[in-house]
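re: that chain from earlier
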Amino acid sequence: MGDDHSAARPLRADARRNRERVLQIAQEALASDGLTISFDEIARRAGFGVGTVYRHFPTKEALVEAVLLGRVERFVADARALATAEDAGRAFFGWFTTVVEQAAANQALCDMLESGSGLALRPGSTLADDFAAALARLLTRAQRVGAVRGDLEARDVHDLLRGCLAAERRARARGGAVRMAEVVCEGMRAKSSAPPPTF
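^ sequence. v structure.
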């Protein structure tokens, strides 16, 4: 019986290493190619047959979520931590800018935030609701102190975030200045809190 156990251990270790390899390659592939990349291509880049990928992740959605959900959860956690920040305006604009900068550098994360692709970010899912609620709380606090325009709703800011991601990605692709978050944030500032123009 001991021989059976000792023989099984390398298989478990191999399976664990294979899973880690798939996750590593999937992370790189999704960052560069986005959600359109196939299981077959991820398996090829990892040096495995597609069956190995399926054994660890039964659907492409499961693989995408394993790679990306932690990043979105971090955005939510950061927003919650900033919800009691002394400077509500700075907290809101800083969080918005961070999300744009980090997501725009990752094609799949950008796709997920833009379109809600993947079960976890579809409307009504827990993480989608958490993300929307965290954004709304930061926005409301910033509006109360007069840092953000009062006519913006959370869904407006979410739309601006999506548009900003698309514009930022295009700017990066053409090698242009990456300043879309800055431009959008200026547009969201309340007039009284906007810095005076420089000439």
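The CA atoms of residues 2 and 102 lie 49 Å apart.
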